[in-house]
Each structure stands twice: as structure tokens, then as C-alpha cells.
Design a protein that fits this description.
heterotrimer, A alpha+beta (192), B mainly alpha (475), C mainly alpha (441), B: mainly alpha, C: 441 residues
Chain lengths: 192, 475, 441
């Protein structure tokens, strides 16, 4: 870290003590994909790619683990189904038993039309909540939003960030690596 | 950019409907760069003024919405006697409209969920606003059962909660099933719609100028950055939501159909009712998406994103679903005849030759015959043929709900209880008003939300394909 | 999946040995033919030994016939859907489905014993029975032998024509590589798809629903259809795995294809459950005797266990088993569930058809008339043996032999057709993209 203090930042050069990391822009998804594979091979751990749309194969190039999201969904859906059946049983077979159209108090076929949507409802709400929780959202600000260049990440910009906290991070060497991988521009992003 | 938004843009509107056997069809006909796609969609929301037609449409919609509000208020303060509902047609317009609007909702879910699972790339051009029709149609649908109960302020009685009356809701009642199904449908389609919109809202955020817009879009986009880790999760979640929504496509209209089908009324109690309602629902939904897509692409200059091929495919799907509806109409006649049961047979004879004969033939014509014109490419491609057909299909599906709900009931088992149903002007005004609500919401959506799923369209552009980028790194 | 302007990556298809069945096909044909003929003969002998004028044999035969009709009809459905929706992922599987679909000629020949045994199977062939009630008399316009035969003939002309045309055009493209064949197939897939849908529904109504002529359900034809279509998504992976074990199509069919087939299997299984539940729940709820008769006889012991077995084996267990992604991408696990669902597909038909063995006998009708209104699930003890007739050891042996017999002949014809041509459409323009097909999730 001491060495990186001495090097003049390629873009801003401001005197912020701890930068968030390096932001590198790539021309197209293919270049981003190749860069991602190389960065992973170089041993970086705290880094990420940014693109305006999901890029097929990027998760494999980055060796992202399959998310645990489906397990949450299964748990949520199961809970919904069970809760609906339990409530139906409690209401109609236990707390307030009443004969409807000559059916038994506890008539499973008539409870499926309630259990089914509640299964879906709980599953979907769990998916929604778990998605944002696992993605670390919502958040009001992020260091990357300091970068004017990064605004294009939602239009046509393809970026890689390597965080300063990464054990392999070294301003000069990492910049050079990114340049070598075909980055059009590399800049230091300040933190807060 | 001070004039109406269509001015600086001249969409190419190429014909991309050929059978592409040797290469993939072109789904974005204009300049297919990431920037151009973004511009075309964001222009609509960023323009200081909407096209003049938008204001005209908005004025009409708002007037109808006002009518809707006034008539509902009047009905609530006066009582449901202001409608034409009578004995034996207790359900009348509110339930017809409810079933109709729930049906309209289905195409959006079908396009965004089922076509996603089927890997239909063309869906990206229309899924966003098809989903919007879903959400708004469910809103319209939800209002009708609530006002139909007469005392909407007691709607919470449907919920199982401990109360001083010491009773609990009846889980055998299709009314409760409906509440669960429609409530779930509204929630899930909003979640699905919103989740899909977050990356595009982030695009709007990053382009927005001024003080208010960046803040609003910033909050709505939840701080989305489009990182690979986020996209990875996001795609998983989208697929899961699509699977769940697919199950709902089958489930919701099926549940609505049980309102009728659990009874013993001829032409109501049919085991085919759940798939029948589902097929009809998706069919009517396609028709309304087609009817909206034709003017919307014209009005907002989106002809290069919602291309002729999209309209062509929508019309084909309407044809497929229309053929399913026709199958069910015919199987109903066949099995009703096969039942050998005089009541069952009478119900269908009454459809076609009773006092409402023109509706019985009308639905056969509108849903069974008219959509069959989409076998011909000429009909699918020519807007002044396709649009009236789509409108006829929507009308046909409303008439079908009328036939099922009124015509089956007005001549029940006992001739002494036979009674004609005649809607009052309040019934008709409320129906028209519900269209006002739908179009008001839809027009607001067109103006302020990304009308086309920008990130998804970009992902299907040729230059976004990365299959060969890692020639040796595939495994 | 592919780009527009870039050349597609090519995956080597392998040598000629890998895309032709060769002598393996001849051996398989002979084996299946032998097993089939022997089993059918055995079933006929056992059936004659039952002393019920071949009734038990005919019911077992009808069930087995419906099962293999399912596979052929579903294969045709697969091919037509492939063309209708312009699918590209399934090109590598298309030839297998086309060949399986071309079995309607042997199936029509195999239908003859059913037509000759119509009086043993279908009570509506008896004039006395049809005069026993007004609602039955009302149906005689549909339920009479000449019209039944005409309908069968009509179905089979269309089925044979469609399946033959779709295979012939596809083979022609193999030879001359012209795209016009594919265009023609796409064009005809539209009406063909709808026609097939109708035919399967009507065959279900004619062959299965009319076994209990007084019963009706508007969804019964669709229920039959849903069970039919599922079978191909269980049969195709098994056929593909067998070919790959024998070194055929090794590079062509990948785990991604299996995963997609498994998803379809899952989807159709769910659709079957959807229709089955809709039908059951609505009949249960409305409680109209004319309709509940169907479920009443299937709720009496021991049939209740088969009904429950269908609920668990045709839905709950495969639902949980096929839900995770790894299960769809593991060939052994997938093979297990394919065999499982084929067995339960057969059981589904068995459940629909077999109770008619005793329901329609005079003794059965008397027994049902004396069902205790306060405990409808109890039959008079004297009538209880009736329910066991289709479940006796010899009856089940006949069923198994019929299944082996028709299955043997069905497969023999399939392999006979399969060995003549390449195992995949060699000159389909979408073959390259199908070969490199990858699931996104």
C-alpha cells in the first residue's frame, strides 16, 4: 500500500487516502469475458464485472457459485402451502366446524385452491426479498457512483472493478494487468 | 427535444417476418447499437412533452375514470339495486367484468413468464408493456368483486382473523379461493414486473438530469449497479419468478372458473372449466396486447423494437389460443349432447337459440371464427385488419363471460324463476369506466416507465452474443 | 443461441458408425419382434384360459395398446410442436421422434383385436343395454358400431398420413438438403398440430371414456391427452440413453438436451395433475351421481390404493425428484424418473380402463345399485370379489404379457425404420445450433 501512495493516480489524482478500487472499461462483452477469465486466473478475489445486460458465460468465467436462492424459495413455498392448509384446518375443522354441502369438515380437495396460491405467493415474495438481500440491495449510494464514466454501465459500458481491499491489489500492477487485457480506460474510484 | 418525441426519429420499420431458415431473425430492425436501443426507449420518458395523441387519450381516459369513480360511489351509497342484477342472475355485470379483466391480465404473464421459459427471444420487445397490462387489468378486476359484495368496507371479513363473532371464513367457498388467487396474482405480477424493471430504471437514473428525476429513479432502481454477481442472482430470480408465474397463469383463471364450476348448474358445472377459462383468458390477453401494441409502436416511435415480426408472432399466438377456445366450444357442444341429459342439452340450445341467441352466435363468431383469419399472413401483417380482429376478440371474450354468467342462469331449472337480465346504464357506465382506469394507468406507464425491457433487448443483439469469446475456456 | 454473422463452432458429429444404427438395429429388431410375438401368444393363451371369452385379455390388450399409442401420438406431437414453434434445440432429437411417430400402421393392425372384441369391451355395443335408460338412448347417435369404426378409420388415415409425411420430408432433406422440405413441414405443422390435438382427444373419448357410457366429464378427453403427451418426454431420454450406451449420437445429445427434455417431462406431469385435479375436485364438489360413479368405483378398496399411488407416484414424488437441476442433468437419476413416470403413465391408463372389467358386468351393475348410501365406499361382501377380478395374478400376468407383446412389436417396427436412416436430420440448417445448444440456467 505504501508504494501505491507514491504513484500518481491515472485519472483523478485526488488526495483521498483509501480508494475504493480500480475501474476499467472494456469495449465489448467479449473483451469483458476474456478479461474476467484472466483476472480470475490472476488470483483476484474482491472484484466484479459490470454490464448493461447479463452476459452469457460471465458467471462461468468468474467461477461464481450457483446461488442458494432456490433453497429460500423452496422453503418459502413449502411454508406457504403448509400455512394455508393449517389455517384451513384450524378454521373449518377445529375452531368452527360447519358442514358445507355435505362434505367432511376437513376436505382436502377444497383446500387446494387456497393452498396453491399461497404456495406461489410465499415462494414469490421470498424470491423477491431474497434476491435483493443476496444482491446487497437496496442501497442509497455506492462508491462507483462517484465515477462519471460508470454512468454508462447501464447503457453501453462494460466495466471491471478490482477493489483496493483485494489481497492481490496493487495499483501499478493491477492497472497494468487491466490495460494489458484491453481496457480502454482505467481509473481509480474514491471511497466515500 | 422540445417538440413531441416522435419528431427526431424515423424508425426504419423493416419487414423482418420472413422465415429465417439460415440465420436468426433480426429482432431489432433499426440501428441496433446499445446506445440506440437505450435512446429509443428512454426518449419516451425523457421528452418534455408527450405526443399530442397521448394527451387526447389521457383526457378521454381520465373522463372515463371520473365516471367510474362517480358511478361506484353512487352504487355504494345507494345500494347494488342500481345495477341490473336480479334473481336468478344475481351476479350481473360486476362478475362478468371481474372475470373479463382477470382474463385480460393473463397474456402479460404468459409473454413474460412462459415465453421466457421457452427461450423466445422476440418476447423481449413486448414483455414489459404486456406485463403492465397484467398489473393494470388485475387492478380493474379486483375492484369488481369488492363493489359487488355491496359493502366493500367489510371486505376484510374474508380474512381469517379472531373476531368477536367467533366465526371463521369458509374455506370451501370459491369466493375465498378467488380472493387468494387474485390477491396472489396481483402481488406476484407486481413483483415480477418491478423486478424486471429495476435495471431499466437504473438506466433512466443514470441518464436523468435535474434534481428530482435522478432521486426518484435512484430510489426506484434500488441502487442497481449491474454487476455480474447481481445479474447472476437476478437471472436466477427471474427464472424462478417466471416458473411461479407460469403456475399462476394456469391457476388463477382456473380458480375463477370454480365460482361457476363447483355448482350443479348446467353449462356451469363442467370439469373442463378451469382449462377453458385459462385458454380464453390468455387468448383475450393476447388480443388486447396486440390491440395496444399496434398503436403504441406507432405513437412512441418504437417500430424498430416492437417490429412487424412481434405483431406477427402475437397474432399467431392469438390464433393458437383462439383455436384452443374453439376446441373447448366444440367439445362443450359434443359432450353436452353426449351427456344425454335434457337440462345439459337445453343449456346449450339456449345459448344459440334462446333470447340471447345473438350473443351465443357472437362468441362463436368473434372467438371461434374471426381469429382464424390469422392463418393468413396478410391478415397478421396489415394493421387495419389485425387491429379490428384483435378488438373483436376482446369484445368476443367479454361476450363469452356474459354468456357464461348470465345466459346460463337466466333460465335455470325452474321455468317459474326464469327472468331476463337487462343491464342499467350504470352497469354500462361502470364497464366503460373500468376501461378508463385501465387506460389511465397504461398511459401513465407509457409516459414514465421504460416501456420496453431495454436490458433484455440488448442481451439479444447480435453483438451481445459471447459464445465464442472464450474458445478454450468453456469448461 | 447462435450469432447472426459469426461462423458457428462445429462439433464433430462422429463417424458414420455413430449416426447410423447399423447391425445393432437389425439385432434389436429381431429381439423385439421375437419377444413381442411370444408375449402376445402367451397373453392370448392365458386369456383363453381365463374362461371369460377373452374379456380379461382384451382389457389388458386395450390398456397396453393405449400406452403405446400414447408414445406414438406424443412423438408426433413432439415433431409437430418442433416445427410449429421453429425450435432449434430439439433438432438432434427430431429423427428419433419422427421414427417413433411412424408406428401408426402397426398400431392400426394391432387395433384389430380390439375392434373384433368390441362387444366384450364396450357395453354400448349391446342394444339391450342402450335401451335400459333414456340418457343412453340419447347417445346412440355417437355410440354405435358403424360410426365408431368410421371414426377410427378417419383418425388413422390422418395419423398415418401426418406421421408418414413428416418423416418422408425430413428424410428427403437428408438426401438433397433442400430447405423447401423444412418450409413445407413448418407450413403443415399448423393445421397438423390442431388436428393431432383433436384426434388424441377424441381417441381418448372413444376408447376410454365410453367404457363407462353413462359417465361423462367434459375434461375426460383432455385428461387423456395430458397423460398421452407426457410419455414421449420420458421415452425419448431413455431411447437416447440406450443409443448413447451403444456408442451412437455420443457427441450429439448432451446433458443440456436431457435437461430440457426433463423440464418438459416435469411440465407435462404438472399439466396432467392440473387436469386430473380439476376434474376430480369439481366432480367431488358438485356430487352429481352421474359423474361421481367414475370415482366411486375407483375409491373402493383396493382401487383406492391405486388412486393414491397415482397421486403420489404420478405427481408428488416425481415433482420433488425432478425439481432440482442436478436431477435433470444426471443421466442415472433422470433414467430412473423416466422409467418411473412411464410406469405410472401405464398405471394411469390402467386406472382409467380396468375398472370397466367389472363395472359393466350385470353382477357389477347390481352390486353398484346396492351401494350403501350411508357408507358408499362399502360394497356388499358378496360383490367384493368383483373388484379383485382385474387385479388377480393371472390378470396381471396377461397385462404384463400384453404390454411386452405390443411393446415388442412397436419397438421392432421402430428399430426397423430407425436402422435405415441417419439417427439425426443431417442437413437441417439448425443442426449446428442444436449440437451446441446450452441451457442458460
Amino acid at each position: 500500500m505504501a508504494m501505491s501512495q507514491n504513484i500518481i493516480s491515472p485519472v483523478a489524482g485526488a488526495a483521498e487516502p483509501t480508494p475504493y478500487g480500480l475501474l476499467a472499461e472494456f469495449p465489448d462483452p467479449q473483451a469483458l469475458l476474456r478479461a474476467a477469465a484472466a483476472i480470475r486466473q490472476a488470483g483476484y478475489r474482491r472484484w466484479d464485472c459490470y454490464s448493461p445486460f447479463p452476459i452469457h458465460g460471465l458467471d462461468r468465467a468468474m467461477r461464481l457459485k450457483r446461488s442458494v436462492l432456490p433453497w429460500f424459495v423452496f422453503g418459502g413455498a413449502f411454508t406457504g402451502c403448509f400455512a394455508a392448509l393449517a389455517v384451513a384446518w384450524f378454521c373449518n375443522a377445529y375452531a368452527y366446524p360447519l358442514i358445507f354441502s355435505g362434505k367432511p369438515y376437513w376436505g382436502l380437495p377444497a383446500n387446494i385452491p387456497v393452498a396453491f396460491p399461497l404456495t406461489i405467493l410465499f415462494g414469490a415474495v421470498t424470491t423477491f426479498l431474497a434476491l435483493w438481500a443476496l444482491a446487497g440491495l437496496p442501497r442509497l449510494h455506492h462508491p462507483l457512483f462517484f465515477s462519471a464514466r460508470f454512468r454508462r454501465a447501464t447503457t453501453d459500458g462494460f466495466f471491471v472493478t478490482i477493489e483496493a481491499t483485494d489481497p492481490c491489489y496493487d495499483l501499478a500492477a493491477t492497472t497494468q494487468l487491466l490495460r494489458r487485457l484491453g481496457a480502454q480506460a482505467v481509473e481509480v474510484v474514491k471511497d466515500c | 427535444m422540445t417538440t413531441a418525441i416522435t419528431a427526431p426519429f424515423a424508425p426504419t420499420d423493416l419487414d423482418n417476418t420472413g422465415d429465417e431458415l439460415l440465420r436468426e431473425p433480426v429482432l431489432v430492425t433499426g440501428p441496433a447499437t446499445y446506445q440506440a436501443v437505450t435512446d429509443q426507449v428512454c426518449r419516451v420518458t425523457e421528452a418534455p412533452r408527450a405526443p399530442r395523441a397521448w394527451y387526447v387519450a389521457m383526457a378521454i381516459s381520465l373522463a372515463l375514470l371520473l365516471l367510474f369513480g362517480v358511478l361506484i360511489t353512487y352504487a355504494i351509497f345507494t345500494g347494488v339495486g342500481v345495477w341490473g342484477n336480479n334473481s336468478p342472475s344475481f351476479w350481473g355485470f360486476p362478475i362478468i367484468n371481474f372475470v373479463f379483466w382477470v382474463g385480460i391480465a393473463h397474456a402479460g404473464t404468459f409473454i413474460s413468464a412462459i415465453l421466457l421459459l421457452f427461450r423466445q427471444k422476440w418476447r423481449t420487445g413486448i414483455n414489459r408493456f404486456a406485463e403492465a397490462t397484467t398489473v393494470f387489468a388485475v387492478v380493474c378486476a379486483g375492484i369488481f368483486p369488492a363493489i359487488h359484495v355491496g359493502r366493500p368496507w367489510l371486505a376484510y371479513w374474508l380474512l381469517p382473523y379472531p373476531n368477536i363473532m367467533g366465526d371463521w371464513p369458509n374455506f370451501f367457498s370459491p369466493l375465498l379461493w378467488d380472493a387468494c388467487a387474485v390477491g396472489t396474482y396481483a402481488t406476484v405480477s407486481i413483483l415480477f414486473w418491478y423486478t424486471g424493471m429495476v435495471p431499466d430504471l437504473a438506466t433512466l437514473r443514470d441518464r436523468a438530469t435535474g434534481r428530482i428525476k435522478p432521486a426518484v429513479y435512484g430510489l426506484l432502481s434500488l441502487g442497481w449497479r449491474g454487476s455480474a454477481r447481481q445479474w447472476h442472482l437476478y437471472e436466477r430470480a427471474n427464472i424462478i419468478l417466471a416458473v411461479l408465474a407460469t403456475a399462476l397463469v394456469l391457476g388463477v383463471s382456473s380458480t375463477v372458473s370454480t365460482d361457476m364450476a363447483v355448482s350443479q348448474i348446467p353449462a356451469w358445472h363442467e370439469t373442463i372449466f378451469p382449462p377453458y377459462f385459462t385458454a380464453g383468458a390468455i387468448y383475450s390477453g393476447f388480443a388486447i396486447v396486440l390491440a395496444l401494441a399496434i398503436p403504441a409502436r406507432e405513437l412512441f416511435g418504437l417500430k424498430d423494437l416492437i417490429t412487424k415480426r412481434h405483431l406477427d408472432n402475437l397474432a399467431k399466438l392469438a390464433l393458437l389460443l383462439g383455436s384452443m377456445v374453439l376446441y373447448i366450444y366444440l367439445i362443450e357442444f359434443v359432450i353436452a349432447w353426449y351427456s344425454g341429459d335434457p337440462y345439459e342439452r337445453f343449456a346449450y340450445l339456449n345459448y344459440e337459440f334462446g333470447p340471447y341467441w345473438w350473443l351465443g352466435w357472437g362468441i362463436l363468431f368473434c372467438n371461434g371464427v374471426v381469429a382464424q383469419a390469422f392463418w393468413f399472413k396478410f391478415a397478421r401483417q396489415t394493421w387495419w385488419i389485425a387491429w379490428p380482429i384483435a378488438v373483436l376478440c376482446v369484445m368476443g371474450m367479454w361476450m363469452e363471460r356474459f354468456v357464461i354468467i348470465i345466459v346460463s342462469m337466466h333460465r335455470s331449472f325452474l321455468p317459474s324463476s326464469w327472468h331476463m337480465f337487462v343491464p342499467t346504464w350504470i352497469d354500462i357506465g361502470t364497464l366503460a369506466g373500468s376501461f378508463g382506469l385501465f387506460f389511465t394507468l397504461f398511459l401513465l406507464f407509457c409516459r414514465y416507465c421504460p416501456m420496453v425491457a431495454v436490458s433484455e433487448v440488448k442481451a439479444i443483439l447480435p453483438q451481445a452474443q459471447t459464445r465464442d469469446a472464450l474458445a478454450n475456456g468453456r469448461h | 443461441m447462435t450469432t447472426i454473422d459469426k461462423p458457428r463452432p462445429t462439433i464433430p458429429l462422429g463417424t458414420r458408425d455413430q449416426i447410423y444404427l447399423g447391425s445393432l438395429g437389425t439385432r434389436a429388431t429381431r429381439l423385439c419382434l421375437g419377444v413381442g410375438l411370444l408375449a402376445l401368444a402367451g397373453a392370448a393363451v392365458l386369456g383363453a384360459g381365463e374362461g371369460d371369452a377373452m374379456r380379461q385379455f382384451l382389457f389388458g390388450y386395450l390398456t397396453a395398446w393405449c400406452f403405446f399409442f400414447s408414445i406414438a401420438a406424443a412423438s408426433l406431437f413432439f415433431v409437430l410442436a418442433h416445427h410449429l414453434f421453429k425450435a432449434s434445440w430439439s433438432v438432434v432429437l427430431r429423427r428419433l421422434a419422427e421414427t417413433l411417430a411412424c408406428n401408426f400402421i402397426p398400431l392400426m393392425v394391432l387395433l384389430l383385436p380390439i375392434l373384433f372384441g368390441l362387444h366384450r369391451l364396450y357395453p354400448w355395443t349391446s342394444a339391450a343395454y342402450m335401451h335400459s335408460s333414456a340418457d343412453l338412448q340419447n347417445k346412440s347417435g355417437l355410440l354405435n358400431e358403424p360410426f365408431f369404426l368410421i371414426r377410427c378409420l378417419f383418425y388413422f388415415i390422418l395419423l398415418i398420413g401426418l406421421s408418414w409425411y413428416f418423416r418422408r420430408q425430413s428424410l428427403a432433406q437428408d438426401h438433397d438438403g433442400r430447405l423447401s422440405h423444412l418450409r413445407a413441414l413448418r407450413w403443415h405443422s399448423g393445421w397438423g398440430f390442431l388436428a393431432l390435438f383433436w384426434i388424441i382427444n377424441f381417441i381418448g373419448a372413444d376408447l376410454v371414456m365410453t367404457l363407462q357410457p353413462r359417465w361423462l366429464s367434459y375434461a375426460a378427453p383432455l385428461f387423456f391427452f395430458s397423460g398421452v403427451i407426457m410419455t414421449i418426454y420420458a421415452a425419448l431420454p431413455l431411447l437416447a440413453m440406450w443409443l448413447q450406451r451403444n456408442g451412437r449420437l455420443d457427441n450429439a445429445i448432451t446433458l443440456d438436451h436431457y435437461q430440457d427434455l426433463a423440464r418438459w417431462l416435469f411440465a407435462w406431469m404438472m399439466f396432467w395433475m392440473y387436469i386430473a385435479f380439476a376434474q376430480y375436485m369439481l366432480i367431488w364438489y358438485a356430487n352429481i351421481p352421474q359423474e361421481t360413479s367414475f370415482f366411486l368405483v375407483r375409491d373402493l378398496q383396493p382401487w383406492l390404493w391405486i388412486t393414491l399411488a397415482l397421486l403420489f407416484g404420478h405427481f408428488i414424488m416425481p415433482f420433488l425428484g425432478l425439481l432440482p437441476r442436478w436431477a435433470k442433468r444426471n443421466k442415472r437419476v433422470l433414467a430412473f424418473w423416466c422409467v418411473w413416470l412411464l410406469l405410472f403413465g401405464y398405471l394411469d391408463l390402467f386406472w382409467q380402463i380396468m375398472p370397466a372389467v367389472w363395472v359393466n358386468t350385470p353382477a357389477g351393475r347390481v352390486a353398484l345399485q346396492h351401494v350403501n348410501a350411508f357408507d358408499p365406499y362399502q360394497l356388499a361382501p358378496t360383490a367384493r370379489y368383483l373388484l379383485w377380478i382385474p387385479l388377480s395374478t393371472s390378470a396381471i400376468l396377461i397385462d404384463v404379457l400384453c404390454l411386452l407383446g405390443i411393446g415388442g412389436l412397436f419397438l421392432a417396427h421402430t428399430f426397423h425404420l430407425l436402422r435405415q436412416e441417419a439417427l439425426l436430420p443431417l442437413k437441417d440448417p439448425h443442426l449446428p445450433s442444436s449440437l451446441v445448444f446450452e441451457e442458460l440456467v
